[in-house]
Amino acid sequence: MAPDSPADVIALLPHARAAQRRAVRVLGTAQVFSGLGNGATLSLGSILAVELSGTESNAGLVNTAMTLGSAAVSIPLSTLAVRRGRRVALGIGLAAGLLGQVLMVAAVVARFFPVLLLGSFLVGFGAAVNLQARFAVTDLSEPQHRGRDLSVVVWAVTVGAVMGPNMVGPGAVVSGWLNLPVHAGPFLISGAGMAVGAAIILTALRPDPLLLRRRLEGAAESPASADVGPASQYSGHSRISPRSGGWAAGWRIIRAQPTALAAVLTVVGAHAVMVGLMSMTPLHLQHEAGLTSSELGQHPDTVVLIGFTLSLHVAGMYALSPVMGMLADRLGSARVAGGGLTVLVAAAALTGLFPHQRLAVVIGLVLLGLGWSAATVAGSTLLVAALRPADRVPAQGFSDAVMSLAAAVSSLAAGPIMGGLGFTGLSAALAGVVVLCGIGVAALVRGQPARP
Predict the structure, then answer these.
(1) What does the alpha-carbon distance between residue 166 and residue 150 come to, in Å, rounded to a whole number?
(2) What is the distance between the alpha carbons of residues 436 and 433, in angstroms, rounded to a whole number?
């Protein structure tokens, strides 16, 4: 496959290839640890929200705050990446996520709901880093291997993300050692994982893949500029200002390219549906067991079931992402993205038709993860391929911001919808969202080339 543009020849240089291999290793390793940071929040968020606020109508607020944090920081992180590189942007994001974990512990100890929301908002900064890392690994990627490289970094989240929902047991042990409330321990473990992830990125992501590409492109334009500093502008086909970024800049880039718009619609729809259904599943399983939030701690079998269900769901999200990446490279990103949306409809249909069958709910959550994986990996790969190198970082920040904002809206609406229509009604509403997204994506990609 030929490079997408003259600027993509940079990815074929030996120096760039060596840096790319290192970036894959470093980002993948960091993702293993930082993935712990979200699992505990996702698995305990709705339960703690009800426990500390005293009302089930607030069940989705913790996950909403986390996704709002991710939405709020996505564009600033991408702008910082343009100015200072991926290493600084991703490292700062994880440091803020670590502070969020500290506040989550404080909220559990003090039993103060507003602090819980503030902590989860900052944890969302770490979630934004996990999303942007998948784009960072494509900065020096060869065009024919973008899906593979992106999916490897997504896959690396598997270990931490699967372990996160199961930190309730080990967290209780840690809490006992420190004489803290039982639900504080998981956030201590998650915070330690974020700290390790931040340290890996800040110390080992050298050379910075985005800044190296900028220097190599400057050198390709003029041999005399080989020693140009990292803040120099892109040249030729990839000219970009270090001040580029923001909502308006990202939207202008994406709306000008129908394929890029289809890619964003794919990842936004998939993420919103996944978060909406997943965030309410722990509360649904608690209701199915006939337990209140205060009684949950006295029934470890239900706690284990919730953790096991979410772990399988998260495994579906990440474990097979390399397969999704290879399929995107070989079959085409648009086809794999469409397949992912189809699986999401099947997941919502299963949980909606059989809400009282535990096995059906578990299988539905696994399918939910698999559909999200296919749609997100393929949609993200499609977005990179559809744009010039100069346009990618602002568009990526915009995509992640809208993706997280849509998830926040979905999480916020999921509680009232489930309260009024039950788990079946929530599943049906989310299935309808996927269908509408699929229709929009099909209309946008019909007759459009995969590259600009």
Answers:
(1) 26
(2) 5
Tens digit of each residue's pLDDT (9 = 90 or more) over 310-365:
878 888 888 889 999 999 999 999 999 999 999 999 999 999 999 988 899 999 99
Nearest to 205 by CA among 390, 397, 25, 386: 25
Q: How many residues does the chain have?
A: 452
**398 contact partners, CB below 8 Å, separation of at least 6:** 74, 75, 78, 247, 249, 250, 251, 253, 254, 264
- Classify residue 53 by its DSSP letter: H
C-alpha–C-alpha distance, residues 95 and 192, integer Å: 11
Containing 112, the helix (H) or strand (E) segment is: none
Report DSSP state, residue 143: G
Burial degree of 360 (CB within 10 A; 0-12, 13-18, 19+):
middle
Taking the mean position of all CA atoms in its chain, how far away is CA 42?
13
Q: How far is CA 216 from CA 50, 221, 240, in A?
A: 53, 9, 14
Kindly calculate the radius of gyration of the chain based on its CA atoms and give it in whole angstroms.
21
Q: Which pair of structure tokens corresponds to residue 71? A: 């939405």
pLDDT tens for 251-304 read 999 999 999 999 999 999 999 999 899 888 888 887 776 665 555 555 566 677
User: Which residue do the tokens 């010039």 mark?
Assistant: 388
Q: Residue written as tokens 């990440």? A: 318
Q: Which two tokens stand for residue 396?
A: 């990526």
**Helix ranges, 332-388 (H):** 333-353, 358-386
CB atoms within 10 A of CB 276: 28
Q: How far is CA 258 from the centre of its chain?
A: 23
What is the Cα–Cα distance from 436 to 266, expressed in whole angstroms?
11
**Which of 132, 71, 79 lies closest to 249 in space, CA to CA?**
79
Closest by alpha carbon to 395, among 375, 379, 373? 379
